[in-house]
Amino acid sequence: MFYGITDLTTYILGSIFIVLLPGPNSLYVMAIASRFGVATGYRGACGIFVGDTILMLLSASGVASLLHTMPALFMFIKYAGAAYLAWIGIGLLRSAIVRWRREAADETGQVSVDAGRPFHKALVISLMNPKAILFFISFFIQFVDPSYAHPGLSFLILGVIVQILSALYLSMLIFGGVHLARQFRAHRRSSSLAIGLVGVAFIGFCFKLATATLG
């Protein structure tokens, strides 16, 4: 046992698989990195880190129980988050259509993201997901020994591990997105299709979140 963590190896392996699952957070970071470059991609990634940290703290402080006892609050956050994802997805689809029609034009409307506010958008995407709070508490608790005198330390270590894995994965997406952007500049219609697919994915995340339940 390591600082109250019952099975660290299994936890790390499970976290790797969870981090690798595609989601709106990682997709958004890759999209803005491909549009505006590495620095902007990392600003978006920082928004994800801050949002996930807040959700972990809320989970550890008992907000997960509050969401269970107040379904109306869960529903409000859920639908607000779904609407935000839909808004981003529709913006990406519109940008893809504009780019397809103006293949030889400038880069206006490439991706419907604000180069000056990637941190804020990524933060909102991360926070507007009540299922994440429930996930963090239900996943972390499986690896914490209830008899350990300092469970807060155990949760802190588990959270740091997830954030390190997330940072590594997002870094891969950021540099991969920049590389793909270079390729797409030479094939503008391929770029339009890629942006459209990202938009469709965000709308898919919207429906997934909208149909999420407390169970």
What report would you give on this structure?
- By secondary structure, the chain is mostly helical.
- Helices cover 77% and strands 0% of the residues.
- The two termini are 30 Å apart.
- The average pLDDT value, as a whole number, equals 76
What string gives the helices and strands in order? HHHHHHHHH
So how many helices? 9
Distance between the termini: 30 Å
Strand content: under 5%
Rough shape?
Answer: globular
Instruction: Name the helicity range.
Output: over 70%
How would you name the oligomeric state of the polypeptide chains in this document?
Answer: single chain
Keywords, separated by commas or semicolons:
215 residues, 9 helices, globular, mainly alpha
SSE map:
Elements: H1 8-20, H2 24-36, H3 38-60, H4 63-69, H5 71-101, H6 118-127, H7 130-140, H8 151-185, H9 188-210
Report a brief summary of the structure.
With 215 residues, the protein is an all-alpha fold. Helices cover 77% and strands 0% of the residues. The chain has helices at 8-20, 24-36, 38-60, 63-69, 71-101, 118-127, 130-140, 151-185, 188-210.
